[in-house]
Specification:
globular, 6-stranded mixed beta sheet, single chain, Alpha-D-Glucose-1,6-Bisphosphate, Chain A, domain 3, 40% helix, disordered N terminus, alpha/beta
């Protein structure tokens, strides 16, 4: 064995050489060999630190050579493990097949084709999208085609150097335990990528083991979105600026808006075509400051009424609306969009069903629960992540016979009804445009509509605070903070009494007077402090970054004769004080 002088760890060198020997991509082999040749032990150790962890969101990582990167060898081994798990757990996996979709990122098409070739070699039909698509299209196709699972090659709104591999189960929702752990174990049992059988896509098509998803599947998806409509007024003349942020949403989202009667839709020209380099944004997350500057600038110049943005795989939705003086555009928060959509679906439905359900997460605004209760609608909360929302909704539908009508998470994820069992930025865009049009027909703006809701149910303001603590000492400090809060929870925060503490790790809810009840969510290191008056503080360590996150939701009543701008200022100052007080308590 050749030992590279600048790399002292011979075991690391040996592992890298074994990976190179098992790779199938000459360019990837050369890339890893170059790291060895230049003796960059830090880079080599990082690349070999893997494998990338397969979890409930599948895989996500930086493109490059090595097991701790996203590359063809990793995709091949992952798909081989997925195929083995499906064959062992779904007897009809071969005939039902797996949907394979991909977005416009670098290597997405190649990764999708490798996925299809491995599935075909295992005798499993791959329903491969013939061109790039949105994530909600893949989730929809899973149930529409009766597939046993789906793979979507995307890194959503991550920076351009990333890609990912998202897995859905036969119910159209992202995988949750035990499937994530079962698939991960099956991947671990797979040998080198070069030993995994593959069938060239062209040959697999000829043998009907790869079947292109027909355009009719997308047509039916758009028809189902159209059926979500509640009101048809106010659409004529509504001017919309749309951006897919260099992603895949432009064709599908514009089609959804057009069929809904929104004829005046202008796409931001610099961001309309798919481009995995995302040249106009630092990284393509609509929540990032400045990410929607091109869209809002175009909206101001053109006198638009609404800005709608999808992230690159179109599973998230962002919305900007004119300020009250129409001199600028205001981006609504994820919670504000969620409250507006939830209220529209719940309270403005012309023919509501008798038994309806809405679901959100424990870190999203509790306001949706207040709206649901006031309108006799079932309400449930889940852990963070849309996979939990979708799967919990289906569980409750089965258990109670209720009908799921809306779900959201504060990180810009929404779904209306049961069309897609995941975030659907396309369907949510069409319904939000309708909401804006309906308000317009009654002489109100979107901000007027939001004020109307706040005046009725209380003004909820939300803030987040992340405290970063890097390294081993930082991790220990974060753990100690959670331990301290769990052992000695505060009895009041900034003058607001703590009326209950929800500990999602121990599954206990303990009220201020000592009453203990059991929480039913899966265990998670999260603490929620319910405060008098409907306010709340949530603390949880990040699962992917060296930080602890705090979520603050404050409710204040708005007096009938109080100027709303004054109420907003009062609430903003109050939530800032609440944040400062709790962070001080947490240490």
């Amino acid at each position: 064995m050749l030992v590279h002088a600048a790399v002292s760890n011979t075991h690391l060198i040996q592992r890298a050489q074994q990976w190179i020997a098992g790779d199938v991509d000459e360019a990837s082999k050369a890339e890893l060999k170059a790291v060895l040749d230049r003796g960059d032990e830090v880079d080599l150790a990082d690349r070999m630190a893997g494998p990338l962890e397969f979890g409930t969101a599948g895989l996500r990582g930086v493109l490059g050579a090595g097991p701790n990167r996203m590359n063809r060898a990793v995709i091949i081994r992952t798909t081989a493990g997925l195929a083995a798990y499906l064959l062992a757990n779904a007897p009809d996996a071969r005939t039902r097949g797996v949907v394979v979709g991909y977005d416009g990122r670098r290597m997405s098409r190649e990764f999708a084709q490798e996925t299809a070739s491995v599935l075909a070699a295992a005798g499993i039909v791959a329903h491969l999208y013939p061109t790039l698509c949105t994530t909600p299209q893949s989730a929809w196709a899973t149930t529409e085609l009766g597939a046993v699972a789906a793979v979507m090659v995307t890194a959503s709104h991550n920076p351009p150097e990333y890609n990912g591999y998202k897995v859905y189960w036969s119910n159209g929702a992202q995988i949750i335990p035990p499937h994530d752990k079962g698939i991960a174990a099956a991947i671990d049992a797979v040998g080198p990528a070069c030993d995994v059988p593959r069938l060239a896509v062209e040959e697999a098509v000829a043998r009907k083991l790869v079947r292109h998803v027909p355009e009719s599947v997308t047509t039916r998806y758009l028809q189902r979105i159209a059926a979500l409509s509640l009101h048809s007024d106010g659409r004529e003349g509504l001017k919309i600026v749309y951006t897919p942020m260099h992603g895949t949403g432009n064709i599908t989202a514009r089609a959804a808006l057009l069929q809904a009667g929104f004829n005046d839709v202008t796409t931001v020209p610099e961001q309309g075509a798919p481009d995995g380099e995302f040249p106009t944004v630092r990284f393509p997350n609509p929540e990032e400051a400045g990410a929607l500057d091109l869209a809002t600038g175009l909206a101001l110049r053109s006198g638009a009424d609404l800005v709608i943005a999808n992230d690159p795989d179109a599973d998230r939705l962002a919305v900007c609306v004119p300020s009250r003086d129409r001199k600028s555009f205001v981006q609504l928060s994820g919670n504000q969009v969620g409250v507006l959509l939830g209220h529209y679906v719940i309270a403005d439905h012309p023919k509501p069903l008798a038994d309806r359900l809405v679901v959100t997460t424990i870190v999203s605004s509790p306001m949706l629960g207040v709206i649901a209760k006031a309108n006799n609608v079932r309400y449930a909360e889940t852990l963070t992540g849309f996979k939990w929302i979708a799967n919990r909704a289906m569980e409750l539908e089965k258990e109670t016979g209720t009908t799921f009508v809306f779900g959201y998470e504060e990180a810009l994820g929404y779904t209306i009804g049961t069309v897609v069992r995941d975030k659907d930025g396309v369907g949510a865009a069409a319904v939000f445009a309708e909401l804006a049009a309906h308000a317009r027909a009654q002489g109100r703006t979107v901000l007027d509509e939001l004020e109307r809701i706040y005046r009725r149910y209380g003004l909820y303001v939300s803030r987040q605070k992340s405290v970063v603590r890097k390294g081993i000492e930082g991790a220990a400090e974060i753990a100690a903070t959670m331990t301290r809060l769990r052992a000695h929870p505060p009895t009041e925060v900034d003058g607001l009494r703590v009326v209950a503490v929800n500990d999602y790790l121990t599954h206990e809810r303990r009220t201020h007077d000592g009453v203990v009840s059991r929480l039913t969510l899966p265990p998670s290191n999260v603490l929620a402090f319910e405060l008098e008056g409907g306010s709340r503080v949530v603390a949880r360590p990040s699962g992917t970054e060296p930080k602890i996150k705090y979520y603050f939701d404050l409710r204040v009543a708005v007096a009938d004769d109080e100027l709303f701008e004054q109420a907003e200022k009062r609430a903003s100052a109050r939530v800032a004080a609440l944040e400062a007080a709790f962070v001080a308590l947490a240490g």
